[in-house]
Amino acid sequence: MTTTTETGTETTATAAAVLEARGVTMRFGGLTAVRDVDLTVRQGEIVGLIGPNGAGKTTFFNCLTGLYVPTEGQVSYKGTVLPPKPHLVTQAGIARTFQNIRLFSNMTVLENVLVGRHTRTKEGLWSALVRGPGFKRAEAASRARAMELLEFVGLAAKAEHLARNLPYGEQRKLEIARALASDPGLLLLDEPTAGMNQAETRTTEELVFAIRDLGIAVLVIEHDMKFIFNLCDRVAVLVQGEKLVEGTSEVVQGDERVVAAYLGTPFEGAPGAEEAAEVEAAEAHAAEAEATEPEAEASEDAPADEAPAADAAPAETPASEGADSTTEGDSK
Ligand SMILES: Nc1ncnc2c1ncn2[C@@H]1O[C@H](COP(=O)(O)OP(=O)(O)OP(=O)(O)O)[C@@H](O)[C@H]1O
């Protein structure tokens, strides 16, 4: 896309690519939720994916993790094209968390992490049934690793608590620990600070830096701009399914197209600007038609003294509705 600005930092720009998405497009019937998106995440990077509500961020994540089969395009992990099957994507080395927390609420904190470990355990069903020495060794190793991860995210003291009894912020941390249990090379976080207070958000920021320091690349969706711009080496902006801008936090924050996309002012060449102009013209046309219709009807059917009241309202209603919906749509 010609409008994209790519400005990686010097160190990360030369590092090996962990994730390469090329021309990813996802259509749902007539709706194109993601259109021709390219994105690279390199070793050692934290990359942010931002965009207004409904921009296609989660759909793009779902294409990366095999939850959706992209209509077009492909996704590679460390140079190998990924089959669009979630368990194969996890096995390859990509783990994720979800926008809506998906824990096993009646299992303990430790058991939740052990579930995340199963792609890395080799013991089969027979071994599990017999509970031989191989199985016991593997089980002990899994528990040790799970405890290590709980220590890492600060939940070791709550290993035996039921997941559903954890406060919200800790449930999000547990999701991260469970994702890390599959030993990923790339972690995808979908709104990790949603619903968190400032202190929890700061802890999450530190946690993501610590994950990167373990050698795990991170791709993160978030609406909290302060969090994103503090955290990320590079940020990509999706608007109406298309990648609008990509660059360092400074580049993205200073880009007038990003400001316009968030504030909702259409600008020349913006994705969807043409459609928006068409809709606006059609609405104006409809408003004009409505404004003149009652007048014509009034002159034919109604008594002359009722006509002025009939034409006053319709002329104003569509314009004020339009203004309201724009404000609402951009408010989040
Ligand atoms: N399974 C689906 N079937 C049909 N349409 C879908 C489906 N999933 C998403 N969409 C549509 O695709 C568009 C992009 O949605 P998506 O959830 O990816 O946006 P988002 O950027 O993650 O939004 P938010 O920030 O609000 O989470 C929306 O118009 C949404 O309604």
What is the name of the CATH topology of the largest domain? Rossmann fold
Named at the architecture level, the CATH assignment of the largest domain is: 3-Layer(aba) Sandwich
Name the CATH superfamily classification of the largest domain.
P-loop containing nucleotide triphosphate hydrolases
SS-based class:
alpha/beta
List unreliable stretches of 5+ residues. 1-10, 295-332
| Helical percentage | 40-55%
* Portion in beta strands: 15-25%
Number of domains in the coordinates?
A: 3
The average pLDDT value, as a whole number, equals 80
Major β-sheet strand ordering: 6-7-8-3-9-10
> How many strands in all?
10
Oligomer: single chain
Any idea of the CATH class of the largest domain? Alpha Beta
Instruction: Name the bound molecules.
Output: adenosine-5'-triphosphate
**Element-level helix/strand string:** HEEEHEEHEHHHHEHEHEEHHHH
- Rg computed from alpha carbons, rounded to a whole number of angstroms: 25 Å
Main pleated-sheet profile: 6 strands, mixed
Number of helices: 13
Shape type: elongated
Distance between the termini: 27 Å
